[in-house]
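User: Show me a protein chain along with its predicted structure.
Assistant: Here is one chain, sequence first, then structure tokens.
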Amino acid sequence: MNKVLIIAEAGVNHNGDINIAKKLIDVAVEAGVDYVKFQTFKAEKIVSRAAEKAAYQIENTAKASESQFEMIKKLELDEATHLILMDYCKSKGIEFLSTPFDLESIDLLYNLGITLNKIPSGEITNIPYIQKVGGLGNEVILSTGMSNLGEIELALQTLKEAGTARENITVLHCNTEYPTPMTDVNLRAMNTIEQAFGVKVGYSDHTLGIEVAIAAVARGAVCIEKHFTLDRNMEGPDHRASLEPEELKAMAKAIRNIEMALGSTIKQPSASEAKNINIARKSIHLAKNLPAGHILTAVDLAIKRPGNGLASIHLPLVIGRALKADLKIEHQLSFSDLA
């Protein structure tokens, strides 16, 4: 059984403070996830100074007049900070990951030895970006928020032509609204992607709570990505759509339980239930005292527990047979009782 990859998305919830970033790593370690993921970008490379903030960003940050550029500029992580956080992750026994949002950031992470590339939803139509990621030949996780099947197909084809094999790509169904309304999750689309392109699939979750991520695992997700924070009341664009520490821990535990519960495709008695077969099932007993030589009819028989005798599937082989000896009510029949 393959383990579900759980990515705890710290994103920009460090608020530009390395100490908060380290605390987020500690939370991810405590939760037992596989990766803690940040975001790598240069504000000048990804947004114009005139770009407005999204509605959810305005709601979640104190300065409504602040531009998107001003907001994210404060959230940049430089190379030195990346190295510090990577070393901290290594010391804590958790994998470091970051999503690049521009071409230079792809190079930065590659030069730092990151061998798993995460393509965010906003870059799915950014062909030069996808070509650059595809040319690295690494494992790729592709988020698909705001996209349709045609755009996903183009991204997958671009990755393939650039040098990334289809088997090295995991596609995450996603909705890019923070938080995502339950009515817009459309989780079945994850399986549509799987069937349409023959790829591994997962789910990047922006809903409140943990139930949709757990449901995605039950539907076959091999990767789950979920934002988390130290406190949803902190100021910042993504905090309010993020899990708090105990919720992250509960999600990871639930995913591991579902992972075990999915089991195999073979239907057979499990080791734990085998001992209950004879207790729970029934077998053929006599419904009354009967003498030797009596020819058995349906009214002479009762189906009762325990089930370690002749099962009722053998009734056609019992009815019409004679008893060899006198037998009392509730006697559990065996073929040796029959003439």
